[in-house]
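Hey team,

Filing this mostly as a record. A colleague (T.K.) asked me to run one chain through the structure pipeline before their review meeting, and I want the input and output archived in the tracker in case anyone asks later how it was produced. No errors, nothing strange. Just documentation.

Input sequence:
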Amino acid sequence: MQIKKILFPTNFEHLSLKIVEELFVLKEAGLEEIVFLFVIDRDEVSFNLLRGFDKDYAEELTESARLRFLEWEERVKEAGLKASHVIEIGSPEGKILEVSCREDVDLIVAGRRRPMATDAIYLSGTTMGVLRRTAIPVMIYKSNLHKEGVDIAEPPSFARIVLPTDFSDPAKCAFELIKGMKGVVKHVNIMNVLSERDFRKYSKNEIAAEETEAMTKMHDMVGELSTLGIEAKANIFAGNTVTETLGCQEDNNAGCIVMGTTGKHGIMEAWLGSASHRVAEQSPVTVILVPLNRDVCYM
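Output structure:
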């Protein structure tokens, strides 16, 4: 699974172009094209009894976005990549899903430059909606510019990655994505977490068997990565998935976390649903959430 084509939705927040430039490093992993998307929220220009559809304002927003995208596309092309843009009116969530599928992208970039004072997290309602419905990996971009005293953004580092896994199908998809990033990934910390629930549910011997099985599977993954020239290490932790994942990232100075997600609530949410979303919210570094491959592009 390679990242050849990226969808970059934007509302032209400050430093958005800088973020785009920081993603150029993915060219070493096969990136070929970036598609920009600006969605004019239909609520801003929608029909009402007093003024009807505000066609003039919609055209003004469209032209303003088009001119800015021309500048962005020129910068992307200078970096040796293809670039195009899409401007549409509608629901931001719906249009991101629709355009990502129509353009057949491999990755959607989401998240704000810095957390808002009102929520202290990166995941907006639109981003959460996309995560729950898409079958395409989503990058929750994190910048260091929200930190006090930092004036220059440090680009996300994909050289050192943390990969939490429970060996489920979404987790396997996350592993395949990392393999496809072999041009930029140098080291991967593969981790499996035994929860408090596991220790309550299983006997001591059963826990030991679980640990042995998990280490065997992770060592197989280490071997696969080694054949691609990627150094890897297997770890087993006991505790809370979110806490242990963030701790592993900090201890190993990883620049990115990649993990599978179901994108839904239910039986699996303890590991792959809410856990992955909480990691994305709380992580100080960029997180890539990888859903299960399925025939339907989005639900």
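Quick notes for T.K.: The first strand starts at residue 5 and ends at 9. Residues 146-299 form a domain with the Rossmann fold fold (CATH 3.40.50.620).
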